[in-house]
């Protein structure tokens, strides 16, 4: 990237009053370096992933209107194509403030995409690891079998290890719980892992929202909304097309609202209710229900994305637009 001939310090006066992108040479170089580092790391993480991870990424985090019978060979084709084109760009020496601003915005978008791809791949790797190490079902194709355990009579007669409600809460770094009633330790541990899947997915969703926060400003909350500066629509440097930030933000609204409905209190309430009903029968039932909830959470979020994709297609945004890529990474 070259930026010779540009003023030492620039702030675009063509941006909205919500934006402050610093466009001096040092800042532009940092945007460029950050983008390249993220792109290289994404490539390394993807190449180290195995086929089940790639299939799951294709299902949950790649734009689609349904489960394809013949899925594309490369789920990252659109992203990689845009990354390659950006790497071939440079800021003209006589670039206007708007051109430099557009360049900086797109670098930030592509960096956010690359970082989020890495996090989603790592999430899927972790899910498969949990399944392989502990045998609990996870929302990954081939690893999502229904939760099952031996009959209640067998549990009662052959508990190799035992777990009290206080142990259960303690493993979740919470206090309380009855200290005498015991259940089968394996079932109790399975329940802990199944709860961790739900919690981990929620956290990864929030991480994705964080990376795209500047492109989804209308839906920021609290301090986050004030700490960031929104990015409005801009022209993509290598093709001149407009990246339709507003349409993306509106499409993401329902997904983010559904995600933000999951509160810390709701999770705590559920966990303590489990601890208050600490018998083999009820803990086994809770584990089965949690496995079903985990699968539902993944599928419902995918359904919401597909619904919003249909709306974006009606607005004339093509399926291979980066707006769609961002939407499905959320």
Task: Report what the structure shows.
The chain has 330 residues and is mostly helical. The chain has one domain. The protein is 61% helix and 3% strand. It has helices at residues 25-47, 51-61, 77-87, 97-134, 152-157, 165-171, 185-211, 222-227, 245-260, 264-276, 280-314, 322-329, and strands spanning 162-164, 182-184, 234-235, 242-243. The protein has a two-stranded antiparallel sheet with strand order 1-2. A hairpin with a 6-residue loop joins strand 3 and strand 4 (242-243). The longest helix is centred in the middle third of the chain and has 38 residues, at 97-134. The radius of gyration is 23 Å and the shape is elongated. The chain starts with 24 loop residues before the first helix and ends with a helix. Residues 2-9, 11-18 and 219-228 have low confidence and may be disordered.
Shape: elongated
Order of helices and strands: HHHHHEHEHHEEHHHH
Give the number of DSSP strands: 4
Q: Bin the strand percentage.
A: under 5%
Structural class: mainly alpha
Distance between the termini: 30 Å
- Main beta-sheet strand count, sense and barrel state: 2 strands, antiparallel
Number of domains: 1
Unreliable residue runs: 2-9, 11-18, 219-228
What strand order characterises the main sheet?
1-2
Radius of gyration: 23 Å
Oligomer: single chain
Q: Determine the mean pLDDT.
A: 87
How many H/I helical runs?
12
Helix percentage range: 55-70%
């Amino acid at each position: 990237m070259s930026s010779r001939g540009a003023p030492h310090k620039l702030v675009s006066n063509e941006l909205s009053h919500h934006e402050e992108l610093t466009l001096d040479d040092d800042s532009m170089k940092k945007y460029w370096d950050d983008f390249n580092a993220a792109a290289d790391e994404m490539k390394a993480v993807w190449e180290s992933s195995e086929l089940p991870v790639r299939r799951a990424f294709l299902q949950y985090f790649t734009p689609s209107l349904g489960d394809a019978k013949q899925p594309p060979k490369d789920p990252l084709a659109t992203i990689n194509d845009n990354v390659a084109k950006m790497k071939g760009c440079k800021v003209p020496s006589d670039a206007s403030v708007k051109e430099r601003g557009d360049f900086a915005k797109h670098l930030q978008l592509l960096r956010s995409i690359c970082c989020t791809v890495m996090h989603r791949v790592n999430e899927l790797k972790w899910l498969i690891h949990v399944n392989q190490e502990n045998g609990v079902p996870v929302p990954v194709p081939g690893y999502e079998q229904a939760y099952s355990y031996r009959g209640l009579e067998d549990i009662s007669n052959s508990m190799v290890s035992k777990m009290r409600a206080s142990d259960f809460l303690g493993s979740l770094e919470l206090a309380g719980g009855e200290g005498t009633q015991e259940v089968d330790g394996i079932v109790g541990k399975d329940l802990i892992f199944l709860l961790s899947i739900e919690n981990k997915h929620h956290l990864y969703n929030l991480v994705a929202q964080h990376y795209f926060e500047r492109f989804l400003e209308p839906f920021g909350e609290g301090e986050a909304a004030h700490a960031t500066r929104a990015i409005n629509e801009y022209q993509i440097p290598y093709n001149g097309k407009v990246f339709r930030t507003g349409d993306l933000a509106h499409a993401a609204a329902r997904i983010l609202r559904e995600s933000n409905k999951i509160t810390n209190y709701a999770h705590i309430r559920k966990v303590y209710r489990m601890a208050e009903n600490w018998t083999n029968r009820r803990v086994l039932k809770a584990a089965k229900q949690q496995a079903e909830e985990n699968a539902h959470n993944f599928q419902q979020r995918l359904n919401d994305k597909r619904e919003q994709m249909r709306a974006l297609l009606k607005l004339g945004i093509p399926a291979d637009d980066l707006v769609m890529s961002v939407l499905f990474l959320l």
